[in-house]
Design a protein that fits this description.
The chain has about 900 residues and is α+β, with helices and mostly antiparallel strands. It has six domains: about 110 residues, Leucine-rich Repeat Variant (Alpha Horseshoe), CATH 1.25.10; about 180 residues, Immunoglobulin-like (Sandwich); about 100 residues, Neutral Protease, domain 2, CATH 1.10.390.10; about 130 residues, Orthogonal Bundle (Neutral Protease, domain 2), CATH 1.10.390; about 80 residues, Aminopeptidase N, middle-beta domain (Immunoglobulin-like), CATH 2.60.40; about 35 residues. About 40% of the residues lie in helices and about 20% in strands. The chain contains 27 helices and 28 strands. It has a seven-stranded mixed beta sheet, with no helix packed on it. Strands 15-16-17-19-18 form a five-stranded mixed beta sheet. A four-stranded antiparallel beta sheet has the order 8-9-14-11, with no helix packed on it. A hairpin with a 2-residue loop joins strand 15 and strand 16. One of its GO terms (biological process) is peptide catabolic process. Belongs to the peptidase M1 family. Its EC number is 3.4.11.2. Pfam families: HEAT_2 (PF13646), HEAT_PBS (PF03130), Peptidase_M1 (PF01433), Peptidase_M1_N (PF17900).
């Protein structure tokens, strides 16, 4: 009977699966590189046909204007559209027009020229004309179509698990996703003006590119019809439409109207994410020297957005995670994301890369101008700290990558959205700014934008502008930094010659030089700090090894290489402790202090710990205090732990958070009660969350109680609930399975999408050695009908972790799905887990684990009872 019921349940599920699987969007993929903690490339990528190098496609027509008349169906998650494309043939008469179009149902085609036939495939639409359209003659085609998009156009509806009041839909074009909801020439070497008409239920709002021409209710259909026009040419992937229940905040930056739209659920906190936009706009217009080129600037939040943000012309779409509560103090802020996407309105929208091999012209500029704004907002040290993080954590770790910034051998356009386009591109601009000087750099950028306004360009357009404005050749610079891979590895040695009063320096480039990686030429600057002042010397390093002698009046206390932090290089410069300690104390040289910490963390002496503890408590810049905390964690001694514990009251929440994370790197069971109390007394939920996650290594009654409480807690985005799940996952404590299951069942809507997926995996991990996992299996199978792909994929992965073979039939169905690539991969991996030859944990071992856990808990309780009794006796005495 049991097997029959299971079979019936599986059959019912499979029937449901067949109804919705083709409509589910592949939309929650690898995050676009956005300058935060994740560097994964590929977010906006599309697999391209053929092998070899990639070039911009030939344009047979000049697209003049695209008009989209769109009616989204929120119930069925479908799109009906009439696309009108106005164009003129180039070079030769046009016999047929081919447009990119993925899985569109074409209902009809008409045009200004007589059409003899049209055909469509899964990839394109081809329209044949009875007579060739002459070169230069303006023509149009009007295509009526509909589909249930699997990308490019997305819905967020109650049926998908989102609040009914927050219903919305939105589009994403970059890199080649516009073709998934309307026919077009889908490549950035084509530009046109655009027009969007959208028909939605009366209570909804519609936001799109350019100016709103009208907003009225159609008396026949009862639908709200909103008409937008963007009257300056931009590339196809920047066309954007957002419609739904939206709340709007408004401001002005000079004469530029600013709008911030968000879902009603986030309205209370929306101002936090919008607070810097006016200042960013004003700073960019002054720094760039080119006025904001569009009629307005809107930002719209999206539930479960694919990335951090997308710089559609005049309308940036943002993750709703950009909204945060004020309780987090300065731990969370939106100004970097805000600045990055706004910078794109000049770099990427006004002037656009002609193909993806030159993506750094979009992303490198946006990243660097984000750093420049950081300097404007918080001082030069803040800007340099961002560049330091980019270099040390994102670029200099890529020692084996032989791809240059400009590279056209990619298989998928998403391969270009990585560290080369973003932080390395930013660093190239930083080095150019140092070589040219701030004023000349600003003039070069201004000229580059003005000369290429409303055009799609390649890297030579930037280089030629810089050379013309500066009067200098930059062939070698672009050759080594942009057209070749990597960065220099530099080894420096210093020796003081007291009799001659000379500083003896050697510099050697140690990277492997080959066809992909050059021997670099760069200015090598040294600063010598002594009791009576500083001396700076700059040499040209263009060979394998150099030796220099510098006469000085006194022995320097500190020798610094690249004191202005203007060279992207991996530098080895070993120094004695006394020099490093002196360098750490120089409050005028923030990067020097960071460099000192890099070496001191390897020393591990008590004197070093004391110096780092002093820096953690007293340094003038928050970033140095953060790096000092991280160094103490790496030293990992008792005194390092004590220094961190003494710093938990840091006034700067960013430092306090890092101290808590550093403490979490230690195992100190005797301090568990203190840690639990810190969680309870801390008011900042971001810091509370970090501490809760660190408790996952402790099996303790107080931790048990805390985690049970947090499973029922309420916090912004339920951050504390998610942290509790992470701690439970780390503990692998099967005794928490019941509480976690109850939380998933009773508070399912309280989880974020990613939080629910994590909870499912956690439930499976802590239950895998249980004798009876039927309840867990049923719960996980129920999640497979969720319309959010991360939840389904999380449930599929969890079924593999759970190890329950009775889920195989369902997993095999997903493994054979051709409509959801990621679900298919998750199912195949889960099946592999289930069918693997790994031995299952014997029942005796499982029972022994439970017994040990039980004995631990009883021992803790006896210890607690004994302590209570002792206090009572002492009180009577």
């Amino acid at each position: 009977m049991t097997h029959r019921l299971i079979a019936l349940g599986v059959f019912s599920f499979l029937a449901f699966f067949s109804l919705f699987s083709t409509a589910v969007a592949e939309e929650y993929r690898v995050c676009r590189y956005c300058g935060e903690s994740h560097d994964a490339a590929g977010m906006f990528g599309v697999d391209l046909e053929g092998d070899g190098r990639r070039y911009a496609p030939i344009r047979h027509v000049d697209v003049l204007h695209i008009k989209l008349d769109v009616t989204p169906d929120f119930t069925n998650r479908t799109v009906a559209c009439v696309t009108t494309i106005k164009f003129v043939p180039l070079r030769e008469p046009l016999r047929e027009l081919r447009l990119d179009a993925i899985d569109l149902t074409i209902d009809g085609v008409r045009g200004s020229a007589e059409i003899s036939d049209f055909s469509s495939t899964k990839k394109d639409v081809t329209i044949a004309f009875s007579e060739p359209i002459p070169v230069g003659e303006e023509a149009f085609v009007e295509i009526t179509h509909h589909n249930q998009p699997t990308g490019g156009f997305y819905f967020r509806t109650p049926e998908m698990g989102y609040p009914a009041d927050d219903i919305h839909c939105w589009t994403q074009g970059e890199s080649h996703f516009a073709r998934q909801w309307f026919p077009c020439f889908d490549y950035p070497n084509e530009r046109s003006t655009t027009e969007v008409i959208c028909r939605v239920p009366e209570a909804m709002s519609v936001v799109s590119n350019g100016k709103m021409l009208s907003n009225e209710v159609d008396p026949k259909s009862g639908l709200r019809v909103v008409h937008w026009l963007h009257d300056k040419p931009h590339v196809n992937y920047l066309i954007c439409l957002v419609a739904g229940n939206l709340e709007k905040l408004e401001k002005m930056a000079g004469d530029v109207p600013l709008g911030f739209y968000t879902q009603p659920s986030w309205k209370e906190h929306a101002e936090n994410a919008f607070s810097d936009t006016v200042d960013i706009m004003n700073f960019f217009q002054e720094e760039i020297g080119v006025a904001y080129p569009w009629p307005k600037y809107d930002q719209v939040t999206i539930a479960d957005f694919l990335a951090g943000g997308m710089e559609n012309t005049t309308i940036t779409t943002l993750t709703d995670r950009t909204i945060y509560s004020s309780e987090t103090e300065n731990v969370k802020t939106s100004h970097s994301l805000d600045a990055h996407e706004l910078a794109h309105q000049w770099f990427g929208d006004y002037v656009t890369c002609v193909d993806w091999s030159h993506l750094w012209l979009n992303e490198g500029f946006a990243t660097y101008y984000t750093h420049l704004y950081e300097g404007h907002k918080s001082g030069r040290d803040a800007m340099l700290y961002r560049l330091y993080g980019d270099a040390n954590r994102r670029i200099l770790t890529q020692t084996k990558d032989t791809r240059p910034i400009v590279w056209n051998e990619y298989k998928n356009s998403g391969q270009q959205f990585d560290y080369r386009a973003y932080p390395k591109g930013s660093w190239v601009l930083h080095m150019l700014r140092d070589r040219l000087g701030e004023d000349l750099f600003r003039e070069c950028v201004k000229t580059y934008l003005e000369r290429n306004a409303l055009k799609s360009v390649a890297t030579p357009a930037l280089q030629s502008t810089i050379e013309e404005v500066s009067g200098r050749s930059f062939d070698q610079f672009f050759d080594q930094w942009v057209y070749h891979a990597r960065f220099p590895d530099i080894k420096i040695s210093y020796r003081w010659l007291p009799n001659e009063k000379l500083a003896h320096l050697t510099l050697e480039q140690t990277q492997e030089v080959n066809d992909d990686v050059l021997l670099y030429a760069f200015p090598a600057t040294f600063r010598f700090d002594g009791k009576n002042g500083s001396v700076t010397k700059t040499f040209t390093a263009d060979g394998k090894k150099h030796e220099w002698f510098v006469p000085l009046d006194e022995k320097p206390e500190v020798v610094r290489f690249d004191p202005n932090f203007a060279l992207l290089a991996r530098v080895t410069f070993d120094k004695p402790n006394e020099m490093l300690l002196a360098q750490l104390k120089n409050q005028d040289d923030m990067v020097g202090r960071l460099r000192a910490i890099e070496q001191l963390e390897k020393k591990k002496s008590d004197a070093v710990v004391a110096a780092l503890a002093d820096a953690l408590q007293n340094d003038s810049f928050y970033g140095v205090r953060i790096e000092a905390a991280d160094a103490l964690k790496k030293i990992h001694s008792d005194k390092a732990f004590d220094a961190l514990l003494a710093s938990t009251e840091q006034s700067d929440a960013r430092v306090r958070l890092d101290v808590i994370k550093a403490l979490g790197g230690f195992y100190r069971p005797k301090k568990v009660n203190d840690f639990v109390e810190m969680v309870r007394s801390e008011a900042n939920p971001a810091i509370q969350s970090a501490m809760v996650r660190s408790l996952g290594k402790y099996h303790d009654q107080e931790v048990d109680r805390l985690l049970q409480e947090l499973l029922k807690s309420e916090s912004f985005r339920n951050e504390l609930l998610n942290a509790a799940v992470a701690a439970i996952n780390a503990r692998r404590d099967s005794d928490m399975a019941g509480a976690l299951m109850a939380t998933i069942e009773s508070r399912r809507d309280a989880f974020t999408t990613s939080g629910l997926a994590s909870a499912l995996s956690t439930l499976a991990r802590i239950s895998e050695n249980e004798d009876d996992t039927s309840a867990q299996r049923k719960l996980l199978l129920d999640q497979l009908s969720d319309l959010r792909s991360p939840v389904r994929e999380g449930a599929l992965r969890a079924l593999g972790l759970l190890g329950d073979a009775e889920a195989l039939a369902v997993l095999e169905t997903f493994a054979e799905s051709a409509n959801e690539k990621n679900a298919e991969e998750a199912a195949k991996k889960a099946i592999e887990e289930l069918r693997s030859d790994k031995p299952a944990a014997p029942r005796e071992l499982t029972e022994l684990r439970k017994l040990i856990d039980d004995l631990k808990k009883r021992n803790n309780q006896l210890t607690e009872d004994l302590e209570t009794l002792k206090k009572k006796v002492e009180a009577k005495d």
